[in-house]
């Protein structure tokens, strides 16, 4: 169990939003305590689903002042980094599994003055990022196989979160530990207790009638954990 009390940030994932109500929903969450807006970008190749292009990021930038946390679940992310940064991404996260030269990719995100995140699929070991810990700003641990919202949290993820926390703390740098997939009222407390500080949540917020109340409940539980 982790003794240090870290700040907890909530990043609602618009993957589960009602796209016909997107503006209203993002504004409501932005005005009521969300910390980031999480944008899941899928290419139908790295993951078996298709979602948002840079135009979505550009549109969101016009309606919220929250940092846009863009999660690229795409092959060859180097080809699209410029486009997503130009559109307004504040944090750009790539998958370790999609990067042949991860260090170079992180550098190229930094060259644009944007924070760089690295994500790991459930089956990928933390050791694959140990040589870039001094470079990244955020580590995103996937606790479902990426591609869809509303999946069940994979419990083995907890051990990985705890190990990641130790690895990040040992660097002495301020690297965010973000957890994505199956974060809901039943899993949030132990996710935080194991060391997460940014919680992505899609269906547990947008699947409820009152999305603001759902987000607040999640954040309260996280802060009390
Ligand atoms: C999954 C995405 C997640 C997704 C989480 O591939 O990366 O961000 O929106 O959805 P929930 O919170 O419903 O598991
Ligand atoms: Zn995501």
Structure characterization notes:
With 225 residues, the chain is of the alpha/beta class. 34% of the residues lie in helices and 18% in strands. α6 (188-193) links the parallel β7 (176-180) and β8 (198-201). It starts with 8 loop residues before the first strand and ends with a helix. It binds D-xylitol-5-phosphate (DX5) and zinc ion.
Count of helical regions: 8
Tell me the number of strands: 8
Low-confidence blocks of residues: none
Bound molecules: D-xylitol-5-phosphate, zinc ion
Side-by-side strand order of the widest sheet: 1-8-7-6-5-4-3-2
Average pLDDT over all residues = 97
Strand content: 15-25%
- Structural class, by secondary structure, is alpha/beta
In N-to-C order, the SSE pattern is EHEHEHEHEEHEHEHH
What global shape is seen?
Answer: globular
Give the C-alpha Rg: 16 Å
State the end-to-end distance.
11 Å
